[in-house]
Amino acid sequence: MRNAHLGPLEVSRIGLGAMGMSHGYTGAGTDDAESIRTIHRALDLGVNLIDTAEIYGPYTNEDLVGRALKGRRDRVVLSTKFGLVAHDGRGPWTVDSSPANIRLAVEGSLRRLGTDHIDLYYQHRVDRQTPIEDTMGALAELVQQGKIGHVGLSEAWTDTIRRAHAVHPVTALQSEYSLWTRDQEEILPLLRELGIGLVAYSPLGHGFLTGTLRTAADIERLDDSDFRKNNPRFTGENLARNLAIADEVQAVADQVGATPAQVALAWLLTRGGDVVPIPGTKRVHRVEENTAADAVELTADQISVLDRLAPAEGGHHTDAQMQMIER
Ligand SMILES: NC(=O)c1ccc[n+]([C@@H]2O[C@H](COP(=O)([O-])OP(=O)(O)OC[C@H]3O[C@@H](n4cnc5c(N)ncnc54)[C@H](OP(=O)(O)O)[C@@H]3O)[C@@H](O)[C@H]2O)c1
User: Fold this and answer.
1) pLDDT at 65
2) Among the atoms of ligand 1, which is closest to the Cα of residue 29?
3) Distance 134 CA to ligand 1 centre (A)
4) What is the pTM assigned to this prediction?
5) Do residues 67 and 38 lie in contact, with contact meaning Cβ atoms separated by under 8 Å?
6) What pLDDT digit, counting tens, does each position of 61-74 carry?
């Protein structure tokens, strides 16, 4: 596995998102033992960037990752996120990046992850009630105390990124970026100016780009808690319209002799050595498939076909979720 750079932090150029092991895409097929084997297999294949968050579960995903990393902590660049749980009694799904909340959140994450430091600690969503300068000041203190190594932001836009970076270096922005969610291309020049890496979440389009979810019946079969049941791109007429995108990815995959998931990841890898996809899976065979995208080379013609895919129909999140995303 080749490496990439998120600012000064060297990581494998493909990471592993652990969210779906406990949150978002659970339901049939969820099995903690297989999830832990998946994390171990990823490490053996050279993946070192593992991504979780306090809100996943909440808490259970950090617990699971902590169990998986027992005895393996030093092989991992461990990233987690705060800011969607308010520890003053308001609880999960409350945006709170106040310094007091961060100081409580970090202790819980360290305990669940079974470690004395987090390598990359992200604000999960920008908090409009707390100036980003205050948030970054609290995070800079955690860096000084050795509790965290680097600071990241997620789904933040230009003004917040500049203001945050002026207080303490931002190492990575984690935002949705894939063949069907391209708006990060607007922000990449700023990230490069400031030396900030881009961690591409949902790089497989929540699984859609792999061609495994194609019909209303496929979506109906998902667990009721599955995010995709309400996602605008997976519902109503948008689902059928978006199939053309999955079909084009499949056509390129057929030419390359790879799978659609590998093509979606290989395309992201062509964006630069500072763009790091973190595909999510809870299955050993899929982490093997996804990691092998490191060796998939696309021709200029194939890249150009993928660059020109029709835009997706429907927002990449629900309207309520979009309210929490800065643009
Ligand atoms: N910062 C944020 O706000 C934010 C938001 C969302 C996600 N994330 C992070 O980004 C990570 C990845 O994003 P994501 O999990 O939302 O989406 P994703 O990586 O685009 O897709 C994950 C889905 O695709 C399936 N899948 C994975 N590999 C596959 C393959 N080779 N063939 C067919 N299906 C495959 C997975 O199912 P199985 O598990 O059953 O294989 C899962 O349902 C998350 O784990 C999380 O760490 C961050």
Assistant:
1) 98
2) 40
3) 32
4) 0.98
5) no
6) 999 999 999 999 99
Residue linked to tokens 């995208």: 293
Looking at the predicted structure, is the pLDDT value of residue 218 above 80? Answer: yes
CB 234 within 8 A of CB 202: no
Catalytic positions, written as ranges: 56
Contact between 49 and 278 (Cβ < 8 Å): yes
- Residues contacting 115, CB < 8 A, separation 6+: 66, 69, 73, 78
Nearest ligand 1 atom to alpha carbon 203: 20
Which protein residues are within 6 Å of ligand 1, measured from CB? 17-20, 25, 29, 51, 154-155, 174, 201-207, 210, 212, 261, 278-283, 286, 289-290
Is residue 269 within 8 Å of 277, Cβ to Cβ? Answer: yes
Angle at 107 between CA 74 and CA 146, to 5 degrees: 50
With beta carbons less than 8 A apart as the criterion, state whether 175 and 201 touch: yes
Enumerate residues 6+ apart whose C-beta is below 8 A from 294: 1, 2, 13, 14, 269
286 CA: nearest ligand 1 atom: 31
CA of 265 to the centre of ligand 1 (A): 12
Beta bridge partners of 111: none
